[in-house]
Design goal:
The complex is a heterodimer.
Chain A: E1 4-9, H1 12-16, H2 19-32, E2 39-44, E3 56-59, E4 63-65, H3 73-82, H4 108-111, H5 129-134, H6 139-147, H7 150-160, H8 172-181, E5 188-193, H9 202-209, H10 211-225, E6 229-235, H11 239-254, E7 259-262, E8 267-276, H12 285-292, E9 316-320, H13 321-333, H14 335-339, E10 349-356, E11 362-367, H15 372-379, E12 389-394, E13 400-403, H16 413-418, E14 427-432, H17 437-451, H18 457-474, H19 480-496, H20 500-504, H21 507-515, H22 517-526, E15 540-542, H23 552-556, E16 562-563, E17 571-572, H24 582-586, E18 592-594
Parallel strand pairs in A: 1-2, 5-6, 5-9, 6-8, 10-14
Antiparallel strand pairs in A: 1-3, 3-4, 7-8, 10-11, 12-13, 12-14, 15-18, 16-17
Chain B: H1 4-16, E1 28-33, H2 36-40, H3 43-56, E2 62-67, E3 79-82, E4 89-91, H4 96-108, H5 118-122
Parallel strand pairs in B: 1-2
Antiparallel strand pairs in B: 1-3, 3-4
Helix pairs in contact in B: 3-4
The chains are: A alpha/beta, B alpha+beta.
């Protein structure tokens, strides 16, 4: 019996800031202090507050440490674990004037969250099936196999109102029912873990922090739809997730929770992992299945839908990781409880990966209908540096943006669609006044141009042409006709592309045109970038009234574009200037500005 | 896995090893003074015995933790018991042998073991 548990985050974020070395150092120090029999170190999944990692929690006190370094470990062991004096300087404080020691659940970051898909992330050891079972794991599977018919299971999922969390928002129960209705000698369940949106890491964190939830959910789906085999398609660039899935599948097989005759019900289910090479298009369901079959990852026309003719030509149910992560909880606690959360047509919660200009970068799970303001200001802790919020980008390269004027929009599928945005898989990138919306649109379009598989011409050629127009605009050579042309092209690409990638690729451009058309016009008419981002359109100038002639800028300039003599105002030669901004950063008198 | 009973057996066993991680404000807290003075006076075996005794009795809602110097070094090892809604009780000069009685009488049955408290010793 251990008197204390030390939980250290082993998610990708904290791992990249050395959490594995911290675990090693902890184990060594604990052994050295002779506490190995008393204190247990547990490597968990992501806690969500990635901005301040590596994160460590010490129970029974529930003491929440952040930004822990390997050098801090001996002090934690000596002071806290041995002598019971928490190391105050490492304790997470939201507001330094307030109480120092705060339990995790009392912090603003966690208080407004409601964790269903992430319930076990940062709570259990994902490499130990017993901890998952202790948190009521596999109870839902037992209930389905021993007390419910496949039709009962589908009814509960339908009644819960769960919709696909990968972005499309298709009702999950209906999807299952379609597959269940199709007769075939073999059916499949596929988990889409090919998370490709830049800045999104919800699925990775679920797989890393709670892999058994996905295994349990897929087995339940197999039972409900009549499938006996499942595939998890996960990117090879998620090595920690892949490793934990492999361990979890091995443990589930050992306990007979996967394999033949599970719970003596006569139901067999087996799972395989397939690694994706990281092509964005493979997140599209038909391209993903083509890739699992061993072919080049390209989409195929629908219909036939996967429920009729999917993987290897057999009826297949494909769901996203987060969708599956909700399933065991829905079956365990009933459809009503799940449906009691959220808005009329969007039930339950949604996980978002918060990124960009926000204080608490990390992973949050909120009930549907929470406003964007609550997410950014309360949970996210606001925008650093007192800057003004400009817009939030959701749905990555397939989505759009929510401007500051709509910050009080309750987030759900229908509200976002109504304002020309989309829920997407859950990436939420916050932008402030320093972000140029034309540049943001260009960034996402650049991504889709690269990731277009090339099978259909609207996507392959159309996105490229759009990209050229955007480049023309941001380099100061655009005209008002170019903006119209951009819109027209966007329309045709959306209508004529074969798969979701092309059909949604113009969205970032359309959304920014809708809400920030004035910025586009400023680029083409005034030849100015209002946010001061597009290099071709801005000039650095020295205000002679403020310049003291200290020569610091001239020494910092890498290309020698600044001339002047000591104690006299300097000038920048725009024909030589490469607009790197080094002079502005170095000026102590705020004499240099971007115009 | 053949039955729900089998699954539940694993769950109960695993759960009992994880109670230390419960975030419960209604906890009965047993706190052992573990500064240098406490450790020198033998607080470690006392702490471990509390952990084991609580586990042996499968007590729910009881946490055992350590704290720094309580301030009366001559009475170490000192153990404080906090029960929500009741006044704090301070046991002094504790030994591993006294632990079972404190857990049984005080934690489980609600009767303070007067003879081990600071009041009895300081007289």
């Amino acid at each position: 019996m251990y008197r204390a548990h030390v939980l250290v985050c082993g998610g990708t974020g904290c791992t990249s800031s050395n959490s594995l070395e911290i675990i090693k150092a902890l184990e060594d120090s604990i052994a050295e202090a002779g506490l190995a029999e008393e204190i247990k170190v547990i490597k968990t999944g992501c806690f969500g507050l990635c901005a301040i990692g590596p994160i460590m929690i010490v129970y029974p006190e529930g003491c929440f440490y952040c930004g822990v370094k390997v050098e801090d470990v001996p002090e934690i062991v000596e002071e806290h674990l041995l002598k019971g004096r928490p190391v105050k300087r490492l304790i997470y404080k939201e507001d330094s004037s307030l109480n120092m020691a705060k339990s995790l659940n009392e912090t603003d970051f966690y208080k407004k969250q409601h964790r269903i898909a992430l319930r076990n992330c940062g709570v259990i050891d994902p490499e130990n099936i017993n901890e998952y079972i202790a948190m009521d794991g596999y109870q839902a599977l037992a209930k389905c196999l021993t007390e419910m018919t496949p039709a009962d299971v589908i009814k509960v999922v339908k009644d819960s109102g769960l919709r696909g969390r990968g972005g499309g928002g298709f009702p999950t129960g209906l999807k299952w029912e379609f597959t269940a209705k199709n007769q075939a000698d073999q059916k499949y369940v596929v988990c889409n873990a090919d998370e490709g949106d830049p800045g999104a890491f919800m699925d990775r964190s679920v797989l890393e922090g709670d892999p058994h939830a996905i295994i349990e959910a897929m087995t339940i789906c197999g039972y409900a739809t009549g499938a006996t085999e499942g595939y998890i398609y996960v990117r090879a660039e998620y090595p920690i997730a892949v490793k934990r899935l492999e361990i979890a599948i091995g443990q589930a097989k050992e306990l007979g929770l996967l394999g033949k005759n599970i719970f003596d019900s006569g139901f067999d289910f087996d799972l395989h992992i397939r690694l994706g090479a990281g092509a964005f298009v493979c997140g599209e369901e038909t391209a993903l299945m083509t890739s699992i079959e061993g072919n080049r990852g390209e989409p195929r026309p629908r219909p036939p839908y996967p429920a009729v003719k999917g993987l290897f030509g057999k009826p297949t149910t494909e769901n996203n990781v987060e969708t599956f992560a909700n399933i065991p909880q829905i079956l365990l606690h009933g459809a009503e409880q799940f449906a009691s959360m959220g808005t009329e047509r969007s039930k339950g919660t949604k996980v978002f990966a918060l990124g960009g200009k926000i204080k608490n970068t990390g992973l949050v799970e909120i009930p549907m209908g929470t406003t964007l303001r609550e997410v950014i200001e309360d949970i996210g802790g606001g925008i650093p540096g007192g800057k003004k919020f400009k817009a939030a980008q959701t749905g990555g390269p397939s989505g759009g943006c929510i401007p500051a004027s709509l910050i009080d929009t309750p987030i759900d599928y229908d509200n976002l669609t109504a304002i020309g945005c989309m829920m997407g898989s859950g990436g939420l990138i916050v932008m402030d006044e320093d972000n140029c919306m034309v540049d943001i649109a260009k960034f996402f379009l650049d991504f889709t141009v690269d990731e277009s598989c090339g099978k259909c011409s609207p996507c392959r050629i159309g996105t490229k042409r759009m990209m050229e127009l955007l480049e023309k605009i941001t380099s100061g050579n655009g005209t008002l006709e170019d903006i119209d042309k951009l819109e027209e092209l966007a329309y045709y690409i959306k209508q004529n592309s074969l798969c979701g990638l092309g059909q949604t690729a113009p969205n970032p451009v359309l959304a920014t045109l809708k809400f920030f058309r004035d910025e586009y016009i400023a680029h083409v008419v005034d030849k100015k970038c209002p946010a001061g981002v597009c290099k071709a359109l801005l000039n650095y100038v020295i205000d002679p009234a403020k310049c003291k002639g200290c020569t610091k800028c001239a020494r910092a300039c890498p290309v020698g574009a600044i001339s002047g003599t000591v104690k006299n105002p300097h000038t920048i030669d725009p024909s030589v200037c490469i607009k790197c901004g080094a002079c502005m950063e170095n000026c102590n008198f705020n004499a240099i500005s971007k115009k | 896995m053949k039955s729900l009973a089998e699954l539940n057996a694993i769950r109960e066993k695993a759960k009992s090893t994880m109670t230390v991680r419960d975030d419960n404000t209604e906890l009965k807290r047993i706190v052992v003074g573990m500064a240098t003075c406490g450790i020198a006076a033998g607080a470690r075996p006392v702490l471990n015995e509390f952990v084991n005794e609580v586990a042996r009795r499968k007590l729910d809602g009881v946490s055992v933790s350590q704290t720094g110097c309580i301030g009366m070094c001559q009475y170490e090892p000192i153990v404080e018991v906090f029960i929500p809604g009741e006044e704090k009780v301070t046991y002094v000069k504790m030994t591993a042998d006294k632990v079972a009685k404190v857990v049984n009488d005080h934690i489980v049955n609600g009767n303070v073991v007067e003879e081990y408290t600071i009041g009895a010793i300081a007289k």
